[in-house]
Design goal:
Elements lengths: L1 H21 L1 H8 L6 E3 L2 H12 L6 E5 L5 H9 L3 E6 L2 H13 L6 E5 L5 H4 L5 E7 L8 H11 E14 L2 H5 L1 H15 L10 H9 L3 E7 L8 E3 L13 H8 L11 E10 L1
The structure holds S-adenosylmethionine.
S-adenosylmethionine binds next to helix 1, helix 4 and strand 3.
Length: about 270
């Protein structure tokens, strides 16, 4: 059973690797080294907010799950006396991250691995991290419940899982079931997500955490959205206010997708290992 499940996970994660490899230059051009669609104009403002939300403090050991090219990890390592293990499914990103960490003289404190966060306990010792964080990476999981179980294993008791990530929203589902299903399928295909009803909503994730050894502290809309906020999403139409992403969208999407943000939404979630 596990054997076949693992094959499916590996197949999905290979498509994630391909997605971020093929689109690497575009991602870096559009987003810089913080590859997140929901952000403040100055990403440092958001990262300061996220550090506070996660509860990052000097002396902590962090795990960056789905680290991209380590933009967030470098920010944390240069503002706090922390050590970070960073894992990405994208080999090319891991190579770029290592190079940039070295250039920033942070390679001793940030260790990068090309790997899959469905298998965290294969790479890292049990009970070893203060915080495991996901920034717009949890959404790429094949099996979020398995990922949460893996995070539980590697966290210290009292340690926290923290994420700022995409969840399924139900607004369109209640208005137009067919369009909802179509849009969700296209999002899954395009971004290598595996969003499933009853699994990927904020409430489903909170319920799973609560019944699997965590205490949820909060699940909420990120507070930085009240600041100098922008949503640089790739699915937007040909609308100037969304800036450089139009280029990405026009070149990579066949057909227009509406109502994306009635199907997915960003939340910030924190839960502590009991
Ligand atoms: C949108 S990018 C976000 C990168 C980074 N968190 C940031 O804020 O810049 C998503 C990242 O998740 C990683 N990812 C997706 N699925 C993964 C998996 N199963 N294991 C490890 N990394 C994964 C991708 O390789 C990519 O680095």
């Amino acid at each position: 059973m596990n054997f076949f499940k693992n094959i499916k996970i590996r197949k999905h994660v290979t498509t994630v690797d391909k997605h971020f490899t093929v689109l690497n230059n575009r991602y870096l051009n559009v987003y810089g080294d913080v590859i997140e669609a929901s952000r403040t104009k100055d990403p440092g403002e958001m990262l300061a907010y996220l550090a506070n939300g996660a509860g990052i403090k000097n002396g902590m050991k962090l795990l960056d799950a789905g680290c991209g090219v380590c933009g967030p990890a470098r920010y944390f390592a240069s503002h706090f006396d922390v050590t970070i293990e960073a894992v990405t499914a994208t080999k090319l990103q891991a190579e770029i991250a290592e190079q940039r960490n070295k250039e920033a003289n942070l390679d001793k404190r940030i260790k990068v691995k090309h790997g899959d966060f469905h298998f965290l306990s294969d790479y890292y010792p049990a009970n070893s991290f203060d915080i495991v964080y996901f920034f717009e990476s949890f959404c790429h999981s094949y099996d979020i419940q398995r990922v949460m179980d893996e995070v539980h294993k590697v966290l210290k008791p009292g340690g926290a899982i923290y994420m700022k990530d995409w969840f399924l929203a139900e607004r369109l589902k209640n208005k137009n079931t067919e369009l909802y299903a179509h849009t969700k399928r296209r999002i899954n295909e395009f971004y290598s997500f595996n969003f499933k009803d009853g699994i990927n909503e904020l409430k489903s994730v909170e319920d799973y955490l609560t019944s699997h050894g965590f205490k949820v502290e909060f699940g909420r809309t990120p507070g930085y959205e009240k600041g100098d906020y922008e949503l640089t999403a790739l699915f937007h139409g040909n609308n100037d206010i969304y800036g450089p992403n139009n280029e990405y969208q026009e070149n990579n999407l066949v057909g227009q997708i509406n109502d994306v943000f009635d199907v997915i939404e960003i939340f910030e979630l924190k839960a502590v290992k009991k």
